[in-house]
Amino acid sequence: MSNVVKRIDTVFLQVSNLERAVQWYKEVFDLDTVFESDGSNDRYTVLQVGETPITLMENKTVNNESLTHPILYFFSDDIDSAHDKVKSHSKDCSDVTLEDGVNFFEFKDLDGNPLGICNFSE
Description:
Elements: E1 11-15, H1 18-29, E2 32-36, E3 44-48, E4 54-58, E5 72-75, H2 79-87, E6 97-99, E7 102-108, E8 114-119
Parallel strand pairs: 1-4, 5-8
Antiparallel strand pairs: 2-3, 3-4, 6-7, 7-8
């Protein structure tokens, strides 16, 4: 018997200014653009992150105030370097914490999207 779904195809993040958000994600995470919409309907850009891309979707009225947990966690081989870089570019960056064998920290992007980065032995 096969699974109903095979993988997560993409993760959508709403951003208020697409160009500014694309620049920020590329600068902080060194991501490549794999697709850009033509802008005829919704404006979005797809950035490659490992196997699952992130789709930055422009929405002029982003409201993340009700979100109490990160939308997603990135994985990093070097949590300390990731923390240093993110802390200098983000809002509300926490310290690195070790819990149940996982090192992690949480932060917010330019639009207040709650995100995290983790590291553990694979």
